[in-house]
Amino acid sequence: MIGDGNTVPLLAVEDLGIEFHTRSGTVRAVDGIGFELRRGETMALVGESGSGKSVTAYAIMGILDAAARITSGTIVFGGLELLQASERAIAEIRGRELAIIFQNPRTALNPIRPVGKQIADILLRHGNVTAAQAPSRAIEMLARVRIPDPERRARSYPFELSGGMCQRVMIAMALACAPQLLIADEPTTGLDITTQAVIMDLIAELAASQKMATLLITHDLGLASEYCDHIAVMHAGHIVETAPTVALFAAPHHPYTAKLIAATPGGAPSLDTLAAIPGALPDLRRADLPLCRYSERCERAAPACLDRPLPHRAVGEGRGVACHFPL
Amino acid sequence: MTATLRHARYVLSENPVTAFAFALFFLLALCAALGPALAPFDPLASDTAEALTGPSAVHWFGTDQLGRDIFSRIVVATRLDLGIAVTSVALAFGIGTLLGLAAGYCGGWIDRIVGRAVDTIMAFPLFVLAMGIVAALGNNVANIVYATAIINLPIYARLSRSEANVRRNAGFVEAARLCGNGEARIVLAQLLPNIMPLMMVQVSLTLGYAILNAAGLSFIGLGVRPPTAEWGIMVAEGASFIVSGEWWVAFFPGIVLMSAVFCFNLMGDGLRDIVDPLRRT
Amino acid sequence: MRSGRPLLAVEGLRKLYPIGKQRIWRRGAAPSFLHAVDDVSFTIGRGETVGLVGESGCGKSTVVRLIARLLDVSDGSILFDGAEIGKVPARRFGLAPQRAHIQVVFQDATDSLNPRFTAFRAIADPLLRLQRLSGPALRSRVEEVARLTGLPKELLSRFPHQLSGGQKARVGIARAIAVEPRLLILDEPTSALDVSVQVLILRLLQDLKRQLDLSYLFVSHDLNVVRLLCDRILVMYLGHIVESGPADRVFAEPRHPYTQALLSAVPKPGGGGGRSARIGLPGEPRSPVDPAPHICPLYGRCGRATEKCATAMPALREIASGQFAACHYPITAPAAEVQTLAAIA
Question: What was the ipTM of the complex prediction?
Fold first, then answer.
């Protein structure tokens, strides 16, 4: 990716490869992906289920499943190489500099602990607060995420709160120590449309005020385009295209991106103009996967796509595409 | 059907332990079925001259204090013990599961009544309850079966109740109503197959427990009466001879008893793997 | 849409759930009721696709279950092709002649398929129970329906956990159309599917509607999908219908403030920050328990409210041709309204 030479990226992922060893074979979930994120930037990793986007996020946070193996690559966050760092070093920054909010807010919270205490736990672990100050700081955080009546709500349990409120609590926990990077893994799946808008607006506002970088993981191209400046499109463990949002929609360079845009209902005028994406995700356990994993579904595929290594072409300011024959 | 058989063969080939358990069960079933035909000696014929002889080429497992061939008695006892176990578990499973399904699916007063009944049974130490029932009703095989069935009923009722409770609001239950299924048919044809894998494991565990129960009752004299051959009675009779060195009188029935229970427990997992379609890839 | 008697006519539909323990000996205290569906009336014509949108807690799932006769009605009437089916208890509706005419495709195909039934058995279920088919007749009908829904024959012997999301969705649809229904209720049929599969399923639904002469009640929270598929839409909030009208008109010119807020919350692909036009609804929805019958359900969150909104419940009335809204101050000139609201907010 072409980057601004003046600023060092906050997060730099390079050539990351992740495998899962399962009973039915080795799943090559992520294969040689790379991207950069600078301070204060918002970026979305967009892809369908099975594209490897959540796995990437978990690898950055260091919370991958035990069956996962990182086979290649580096993840550099604020100068620290996360894949080589000690558990202690990672535990120090995780929660403080690097935070994550998950998909299903109610299940991601501890069901038997009041939410105020859960926020206070994070503050005590990572923030510089004393045990006496923590409860009131927790209430402050709840107010910042616009939960009404925060003193009373701090004593509530997750099951007493709506989905939207639980997600706000998660955001409060994530932002409690003013992290530099927030990873949001499908934060609004399962929430109502209006709640989704409120939650995403809240994240955007807090990110702007704290100059925090945001990495949004989502399958919803519309959501990504509304909240993120840059989009990286993933397919079957590869990043097929990265571009600033407006440029991506104006002129997609990768055939999959074009098809994905055409299949999203939001932009289409009628059902007949919606495009289906032919084929299906390749089985990532196969040993004979073509080097371009989209080639089996692609109308433009040529023999070169199967065995020539995927190029990563820079095609303009902040754009990259992994295709031998970009649009 | 053939898909199930093929899957069964796959499961057995992948799991040598399960295959062993099934083989052992088959052997036990054979003994139960053929019983007296397989026994080399008459299990009831006593020959005091031969009393308390150790294992030999003639008497494979030796003889007991009345000169009866232990091997023959064990083989013949298989029918009785397996019979008691299977019948009582069938009763406990059949009645307990239906009650539990009704309680879990319908809720309301059915749930309350079944719940209280089950709680009452479980309030007693189960073996003591079995002893009490047999002592009150009389020492015969039928009463042993009833007693064992009663004390094992709560487990099935509770299991099926909680499973029915979880599933009664599932999407497929609503879909079944849309297809014109009546409530009874939903419970029996749609819900019951879903809980069978779990029940299979429980059935096998209970089979083992039922054999132990019958043997235990016989051991304390409340079960089968002599001279009937039954593993528990044989262990009881042989217990007093251990100190005097005639270990085989109690040992062989005990080993067979243990193997049978072991076999049933191992079979449970195998049965579930075969019956549960979710295990098929 | 053809003229004549509507296929489905719902009038004054209500569903109330008693709250709290009912004690026989507690006199005096009136029981509380949760108003899941409150005075809902609408029609579905032959060959029409009507969309029902709303957020969680609005009552759309309850409406689905009431019309499908899975739940008993507290008040109101449901006329299906002229016959009053609302009075038939849900327990007995399985025996009614209309059972086969109203079917439902559920949201989560994984949940709505019995994990112990093969796809064949799942599709055959309604045929066995409602049409008493068996043997070769059953097999050929199941295969025909599978073909109609694009399900390869080999998949019929598979269990749900061996099928992909799109395949399970097709099994659910096949089961629903097997008994030749006239009204198909689709409860968020594509929300659990990937975008690429969603397109295929939506196209399939469109084709089936034409081929089999069906009417659809399409329930969804995804407004984009509703816009593509539906002729008319109904917007629900807190158990009431707040707006109804032709789909493209409602999307282009919403008349009710809630519809307007809902539409503004939908993310628009393309980038360029649609956020500036966001119309927010501050606060939380009012409680559905014992709602005051003379207060508009949106009161307290609506930027246009006056005291009139707290003293008289607005009725659904025609604002523009074909467009109905339940509001004392409906939006009559949309573009100008947006400016005013943005200024107030």
Answer: 0.83
